[in-house]
Amino acid sequence: MNREEKSQVIDSLAEKLSKYPTFYITDISDMNAESTAALRKACFEAGVQLSVVKNTLFTKALEKVEKADADLVGVLKGSSSIMFAEAAKTPAVVIKEFRKKGDKPILKAAYVQECVYVGDENLDMLVNIKSREELIGDIVALLQSPAKNVISALQANAGQKVAGIVKALEERN
After folding, report:
1. Residue pLDDT, tens place only, 68-111
2. Do 61 and 93 share a domain, yes or no?
3. Could you give phi then psi for residue 110, rounded to 5 degrees?
4. Residue 44: CB atoms within 10 Å
5. Which domain holds residue 155?
6. Residue 13 and residue 11: Cα distance in Å, rounded?
7. Looking at the structure, do residues 97 and 43 belong to the same domain, yes or no?
8. DSSP state, 23?
9. C-beta neighbour count of 132 within 10 angstroms
């Protein structure tokens, strides 16, 4: 690979790093062609883009977009593949489902919501991480809960008593 081709690969990776807020660095070495094709298919169906990269080129792409964390660069040894995704937990779910059939892919590191997770032991935590939309939904549900309780109390028999008390207080003044 000549210098111009390397530069194009680095630019392509830097573009993906800028486009996708989440990426996982995995080890898929020792997987046969059939397993690799099945993993690529599972990634495609989940909306995850899988790329096998050279570690030095990926390191330069990380430096280019200023995401070259020491922990991320430290795991770039041996064979590495990168899973790019929009949603934070989608690659973790793909890995978890795929590992029901074998022991690969192994999570080396993940860059999720501007945080770095290093090591395969973080996979379960990443599967359970909530997306931004899920968190907003939880907050909205929590905010609506007290209002629903007040409205239901006012509409029930107690509501008639409360309305009577309010009316009596108004007549006093």
Report:
1. 778 888 888 888 899 998 888 889 999 999 888 888 888 888 88
2. yes
3. -140, 145
4. 12
5. 133-172
6. 5
7. yes
8. E
9. 11
